[in-house]
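Weekly structure sync, notes
Attendees: PL (lead), two postdocs, one rotation student
Agenda item 3: pending single-chain targets
PL asked that the sequence for the first pending target be pasted directly into the notes so everyone works from the same version. It is reproduced below exactly as submitted, 395 residues in total.
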Amino acid sequence: MYLDLHILQQFAPSNLNRDDTGFPKNCLFGGVRRGRVSSQCWKRAIRTNFATSELLDSEHLGIRTKRLVENVVERLLPLIPTDQDPTPDKDKATKVVTALLSSQHLSVNTETQKTESLLFLSPDEMERIVTICTDHWGDILKKIPKENKPQKKSGKTFSFGKDITDELETLWNGDRAVDLALFGRMIADLPKQNVDASCHVAHAISTHKMSMEFDYFTAIDDLKPDDEPGADMIGSIGFNSACYYRYLTLNLNTLTANLSGDLELRNNAVKALLKSAILAIPTGKQSSTAAYNPPALVFATLHSFQPLSLANAFADPIRPSNTDGILPRSAHALLTTWEHYTRTLAFKPDTSALLPLDPHILDSITKSDCNLPPRTETLPVFLDEITNQIAGNPA
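Predicted structure, written out during the meeting:
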């Protein structure tokens, strides 16, 4: 069972997602240059919104970090039993945590105490590391040579007794972290602990040809004498304004499996994903552009066919006409393409819902000769229609 989410969202002049030169990301599509906001950027915005909007409890939110050693050591030190070590200190704790991670083939830079890889872990997994280090402090400490030659990486792989080994077997289990279950993880050194993403997110692309713009700016020193002319800082920055087509698809079966069959948590995850995908906005250059523009159109389908992107609705770039702008014409192209696919592919969704949020597209939708999906009036009703249908599906 798949949940497809299609969004049209028009942004005022902004630079939401920069490339290595500092300019808005872009791509070629349909033979013309388009504005682009990467899937990674949107996923980060969605994950952040889970927490800031309190859509999910912290225990269900993963943590992506290289600072695992530092975090574990901070929590570990107050818990070390005095009968195992009457004089625990930060240096010992760092060596114990590093040795434990080394036994899992995870390298730590001994200068910075950061893992070589950016790890995506659930709170439960981090807590298990603390617990194993606490319960087996003495045994792990005995395995560490008293004199270590200076080295940049903790390349040695430690092996421990059966008790610790058995606990390490169950260490990597992120089935309580919703964002990990949605977006997956890849640990090159621990391929067995990879998690297949249940949610696939496309790069957002403009429905029309994009023109890069440049903002030439100056800044003045507040303490500069009045009789001294000229600016004290001069520069330029790129920006664009575009109507983006955004698409994501969620495999409900994979999400259920990633959450170990917890249907209540799965249903909460789906509602949080939908709401965050609709409302979350990337933070790039927002302090200087304030491009907090909500979506214009949201369209969701629940089906068992296969994921179905509508990006090709915009393969021929949208152009404004004398009567309609980019936004209403983009909405019409999206719905026309949807109707064509449903007819030619004999594709009938179990549930679909259409939420027009921008008044500029209402006339276009009302006058459309397309066989439109059911239209909802508010975001709460839209969310309820989709999530209630999913809640009744145990798959």
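Discussion points:
- The chain has two domains: 2-57+203-223+232-391, 64-176.
- The longest strand covers residues 233-251.
Action: rotation student to compare against the earlier draft before next sync.
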